[in-house]
Amino acid sequence: MAYGDATAQAAGIGKRVTDYGYGFDDIQRAREGLQRQNVFGKFNINKQARDASRALGGQFNRRGMADSGLHRRGRERGAAQAELQRYGLAAQTEEAGRQLDRQRQQIEEQFYGGTMSDQIANALRRFGVAQSLEGIV
Fold it and tell me: For residues 107 and 105, what is the distance between their CA atoms, to the nearest angstrom?
């Protein structure tokens, strides 16, 4: 009977270790994907801001207003809008990173909680064996 319990316990530990490893791997892959997405998002924001800035100059030159101050204000507004987009992207990336950290913590808690319950069960089993041996002796 004790052999069957040990086999079942070993199978449970093996499954927990496997789940733990796959969970960490999934989180790492998600974090790498998040970094790629962040870099691509920054690239797109910078490209859009650069294109908008170039287009803005042409619009003012056509109307003969390049030196009127409106061109400068338009560039400042475009730069401010691009900065807000960068800030929003950074906030989204940071929140996604915090969510991945919470998932990692949950996986660790599940793994260590299961390991702790196995250790408690093992200690109780040993205590029961010791009590029965005392009764025999």
Answer: 5
Q: What are the tens digits of pLDDT across the range 39-59?
A: 999 999 999 988 888 877 666
Q: Which token pair is 59? A: 């619009």
pTM over 0.70: no
Question: Tell me, what amino acid is at 6?
Answer: A
Q: Could you give the CA distance from residue 119 to residue 115 in angstroms, rounded to a whole number? A: 6
Q: In the 3-class helix/strand/coil scheme, how is 72-123 assigned residue by residue?
A: HHHHHHHHHHHHHHHHHHHHHHHHHHHHHHHHHHHHHHHHHHHHHHHHHHHH
Q: Are 91 and 41 in contact (CB under 8 A)?
A: no
DSSP secondary structure of 4-29 = HHHHHHHHHHHHHHHHHHHHHHHHHH
CA distance 22 to 133: 42
